[in-house]
Amino acid sequence: ALPLAQQQHSVALIEAARIGYGASGRNGGQVIYGYAAEMSNLASMIGLKNAQTLWQWSREAVTLIEQQIQTYQISCDWQRGYAHAAIRPRQLRALTEWVKEAAEHYHFHDYEVWNSNQLQQQLASERYTGAIFDHQAGHLHPLNYLLGLAREAARAGALLFEHSPMLSLETWQHGYRITTPNGNIIAKNLVIAVNAFTRSLRQAPIKALEAKILPVSTYMIATQPLGERAQQLIKNNMAVCDTRFVLDYYRLSADKRLLFGGKVNYSGREPGRQQLIQSMRRDMLKVFPQLADAEIDYA
């Protein structure tokens, strides 16, 4: 909506709940390069040249986010620094090989390889054998970042409608008609940006996307504010995740909480809050056993 409005297009955005209700506002806040698939796997599927293009796009995305924060003066606690941590020695060897591959094939030379001692100088955990560290990637408050973009989109002329679910969609003359509880919108072009919520929309043009989208849940907990203890946990205030397929990911918030995420769920059946807290707390204590006395305020 923001770039379209800035180019003088007439833009209306409808949101069934509130802006940022889904993963856009409730993600882990880590802003990092790359994709879920390893770059070597992508290169084998689509060729090295196309993989290099995808890698460059991911780098540009991180740069764009930082530029937007600065240009629009978005207060979202942007912090540089990210560590990809290995639990087992073979995982650290794989990370080291990726550093070489990144330099050779993707012209990326910004990684530092840390052994366990170097990592523990910044991270108060004995769980890891080492990590690779990236100075340019980092973390932010995702909802505040998104609300900052929404503010700028509205300032540029975009119309933003919250609590306005789409009830029906039909072709109309040379475009579309979208029906909401509060009125209709006639549009020449339509951008479907519902991601994991595609299955909740049964309209024919959107239903065709169902087979291409797999909704996945992941979970987070937030401790009570830790005060000076937070500085001891992650001394350089970096974001961290590990190398497992079902990984842990975490960072500190501006008010000195540990935000700890992990697990995946493909079923669509979500756990209860207390069950979630107990399960996530066990995972957190594997990384930071010194937080056994910390209360969990949010899950």
UniProtKB/TrEMBL annotation:
Presence of the UniProt keyword Oxidoreductase in the record: yes
Organism: Snodgrassella alvi SCGC AB-598-J21
Record-level GO cellular component terms: cytoplasm
Keywords for the protein's UniProt record, in alphabetical order: Oxidoreductase
Listed GO MF terms: oxidoreductase activity
Protein's name in the database: Glycine/D-amino acid oxidase (Deaminating)
Domain of life: Bacteria
Domain FAD dependent oxidoreductase: 1-295
SUPFAM superfamilies the UniProt entry points to: FAD/NAD(P)-binding domain
